[in-house]
Amino acid sequence: MAAPSLRLEGSFALSVLPSTSISPLIAAPRVVAAAPRPIPLFRRSLPSPISRRSCRFAVKASSAPPTAEELKISTISTKPVEGQKTGTSGLRKKVKVFQEENYLANWIQALFNSLPPEDYKGGVLVLGGDGRYFNREAAQIIIKIAAGNGVGKILVGRDGLMSTPAVSAVIRKRGANGGFIMSASHNPGGPEYDWGIKFNYSSGQPAPESITDKIYGNTLSISEIKIADIPDVDLSSLGVVTYGNFTVEVIDPVSDYLELMENVFDFELIKGLVSRPDFRFTFDAMHAVTGAYAKPIFVDRLGASLDCISNGVPLEDFGHGHPDPNLTYAKDLVKIMYSEDAPDFGAASDGDGDRNMILGRGFFITPSDSVAIIAANAEEAIPYFKDGAKGLARSMPTSGALDRVASKLNLPFFEVPTGWKFFGNLMDAGKLSICGEESFGTGSDHIREKDGIWAVLAWLSIIAYQNKDKKVGEKLVSVADIAKEHWTTYGRNFFSRYDYEECESEGANKMMEYLRDVISKTKSGEKYGRNYTLQFADDFTYKDPVDGRVASKQGLRFVFTDGSRIIYRLSGTGSAGATIRIYIEQFEPDVSKHGTDAQTALKPLIGLALSISKLSEFTGREKPTVIT
Ligand code: VG1
Ligand code: CO
Fold first, then answer.
1. Mean pLDDT confidence for 329-356
2. pLDDT at 268 over 60
3. Confidence band (pLDDT; 50, 70, 90) for 449?
4. DSSP of 7-58
5. What band does 90 get if pLDDT is binned at 50, 70 and 90?
6. Separation CA 484–CA 475 (nearest Å)
7. What beta strand segments (E) does 379-422 contain?
8. Please, what is the end-to-end C-alpha distance for the chain in angstroms?
9. How far apart are CA 326 and CA 285, in angstroms?
């Protein structure tokens, strides 16, 4: 264990107050400069003019742990704040909102007020984040309120970093009671942009709506916050710090996750591919959390060269980028992959590392196809699935490509609402192995979150497996070959999503109401445009087959007799205005038409989607912000 240390940095200094209980920990304090006045060790925040940024101190290596009495807990009074309702994935708002007095503290306390005490008292919680602006401050607030509510231990990633899938992996591996993820995922970061918080439960899955609804209820009646009187914890290096019955352990955010990946995949197989002189790959971490994972996994463990990784340093504002791996926001990667000298394989991941985008040379794999292709090849190429998958599932708007794989492999199949939280129950019940969402989310029951790096490793495994007997110089089976082969076997589900971001909420809500009204008047057999006959239209309702819970109003669907679909939803992850998503899908069994560009193939259906909804009348928008 590291030598006991107490460190302050900045243009001031330190005078240690005598304290019998802590003195064994600070046998040899190193005084950096002279202090204007003494700083009591057990202060919650540091006195002005010393800013919190310029000052860090750590108490480590507790050889003689202090006694329980030393954890002083204060009760602060507070008032409810409106609007703390969790969306599709956690609570997301502008940073400035989270910085308002007690905004975050209220939500964290409301969460503890909502959990049964046995789920956290004396228990272990994991804490990680995507490195975005405000995470440093937030981590300290969460740690102190957790301590104030009787949590026994917090396992926190070094520098507060841990990807969403890694948090899920750590919760599961270490038998933690749950965990916090400080991230607004694919939303941009920085003082003017977004911050977010998610809570995951003991099997690593995002908290179910039954819990998040309770939290919201408690935010409306909260009156006090319990907070421990401890100093900010130094998160910059690994180690353990203990206050009474409360411990914070700073852990390596990568090692548990990497170990899991090594159990899921055949790393030697992937290494064989990555080290081929005739195979090149590139990974864009978008200056987000997978920057911390890419080097240890792809370079150090799999032997890729360091220049395979771009934007590999996590930054608080993602380098002014929008860490959403799609054709619009990951444009640097798209440009590389469509250039003349493009690598064979390209991938990117989002803010918190749970999304992925997969590209071949000049070829984009839609996420709906990606999960279908992974499912179709998993048994052969990925050791974790060597006995076959238990079942497959997708979110409702995701294309039906996966359905066809499930039916060919004779596997149980599930269609759930948008948001990863709905997959967890099926996995826990042993009904589901591989699942995905059209929104660049792919994953399996190795954890309870979607997993960006897992998807990249899954694709590398498939490519490696398909080329394992190819000698150097022979033409390799490419990403495009794998996709085309898949379409030949299963048919192609053309798919596109149109996003209209930051519309006026009023217009967007009116459009959805109008569509609900249209749906209530539809009849099966009605003609739409020249080619489409309505099978049914509805507002998707899901009944969880495990616990029987019902989730209603999960997306408006128009389903046609040839399997084509138009779906409308409002996003539940935005932080300003309303984002309208339109999902368009059409099945094409004819191989000779598989090469058509998706936008061309879907043109009539897209036109229909815009006219049915009167989108431009309601929102004034002529063009989508993002087309996938
Ligand atoms: C979006 C996606 C959804 C995904 C969610 C969280 O939600 O559509 O499929 O699960 O983001 O992803 P919405 O409600 O905006 O459509 V992440 O990577 O932002 O945690
Ligand atoms: Co994400």
1. 96
2. yes
3. very high
4. ---SSS---PPP-TTTGGGGSS----S--SS---TT-SSPPTTS-STT----
5. confident
6. 16
7. 392-395, 413-416
8. 50
9. 13
Q: Exposed e or buried b for every residue in 208-234, given b needs 16+ CB within 10 A?
A: bbebbebbbebbeebeebbbbbbbbbb
Mean pLDDT computed over 171-188: 95
Tokens of 16: 């240690």
How many whole angstroms separate alpha carbon 473 and alpha carbon 456?
A: 24
Report pLDDT digits (tens) over 305-332.
999 999 999 999 999 889 999 998 999 9
Instruction: Find tokens 């099966």 and name the residue.
Output: 524
Q: How do 91-94 and 194-200 pair as beta strands?
A: antiparallel
Give the residue among 476, 465, 440 at the shortest CA–CA distance from 455.
Answer: 440
Torsion sign (Cα): 286, 289, 295, 300: negative
Quick one: which atom of ligand 1 is closest to the CA of 185? Answer: 19
At position 188, the amino acid (one-letter code) is: P
The SS3 of residue 86 is coil
Please give the average per-residue pLDDT across 466-473, as a whole number. 94
* 120: three-class secondary structure by DSSP: coil
* 573 Cα–ligand 1 center, Å: 6
pLDDT of residue 466: 97
What is residue 572's predicted lDDT score, i.e. its pLDDT? 80
Residues within 6 Å of ligand 1 by CB: 88-89, 185-186, 350, 354-355, 395, 418-420, 437, 439, 441, 571-573, 581
> How many beta carbons lie within 10 A of that of residue 187, not counting itself?
24
Summarised one tens digit per residue, pLDDT across range 602-627 is 999 999 999 999 999 999 888 999 89
Cα 382 to its chain centre, rounded Å, is 23
Say if residues 130 and 289 touch (Cβ distance below 8 Å).
yes
Range with the lowest mean pLDDT among 5-19, 279-293, 334-348? Answer: 5-19
- 183, 354, 418, 553, best to mutate for ligand 1 pocket (most atoms within 8 Å of CB): 418
Q: Residue of the nearest CA to atom 8 in ligand 1?
A: 439
Which residue's CA is the nearest one to ligand 1's atom 13?
571
- pTM across the whole model: 0.86
Longest dimension (CA), the chain: 85
Between the CA of 184 and the centroid of ligand 2 the distance, in Å, is: 7
